[in-house]
Amino acid sequence: MRIALMALLCVGAAPVMADTWPELALQSEHPVEGMRGANLSGLALCLGELWAVSDRDDDQIYRLDQHFAEWHAEALTIDVPPPPESGLPWGVRMMSKAVSPLRGGDLDFEGISCDDAGNRFVVSEAHAAVLQIPQMGAPAWLKIDPALVRQARASGMLLHFNALFEGIAVNPQGNQIWLAAERERRGLLTIRKKQSVWDCEGGCVLMSEGGLEQPPPQLKVKAQQKDFADLALFEGKLFTLERMAYRICRRTPSTGEVERCWSFANDALTAGRLYKSAYGNTEALSLDAKGAWIGVDNGNHVRADGEKRPVVWRFAAPQGGWSAGS
């Protein structure tokens, strides 16, 4: 049974229900004050501190003060140089440029990760680029081999506006990065640092898949395109946040193959937590040994209970830990 379900996930042969997998338990919920552009789109635990990005803010990232039930986002202003040429086609680049005044930002930061030295890495969806923000010194865009975008597009990814890189994970040594292509098709890619350039040693594409996914029944919507909303690397495994399915999946870092998944739909989709939206709203993921932080990007939507701010949920780790069922 389990093998069959995993096969469906990998090849997209048919929609898979989010409640197929064991449920995680919600421990706490934290509305976030102080994010200028709201729209929390990425989370990362860096040297014991939780950092966040907004896809509406180009010139700052946020450290989350967790001392109270309602968290406060403390802005770190960053001086971002002009983004590099990505190799994205003209039409995709022009669409991003056209909507940036309406969105409130040109860069569209969609994920954040960090290494053991405290360097933070932020992925720009609009430019398919990665910004490094060191502990000391000026931010700089990584020099990435253009083969990354070429290989992604050849595999059916990064073909559509607003469906580009949605998540990022960096290894502790800071010399390998994983990127998640959001949808139509979704996929996982990796690049490695070679002196000053990040390249596609052995190929960048780990996996690419399309197909539909049936959202949890609480949403009362039809099947949607499979997607990735964020990535996290923990204890040598890659974890994907799968927005429409309301689940976290553990994957093999070298192939992207699904090993095990956990749903968080039951607690995330109670009546008071629902939005008037046909799409999932979870955008950010960070893991530690005791649990997972999941960030909600509510956009302009107001929750059924009246909450208008971004929210971070704390879910307990599954019984046996994140390596359970290996």
TrEMBL record:
Residues 1-18 form the signal peptide. Residues 40-185 form the Phytase-like domain. The keyword Signal applies. Keywords: Signal. InterPro entries: Phytase-like_dom. SUPFAM superfamilies: NHL repeat. This is DNA topoisomerase IV.
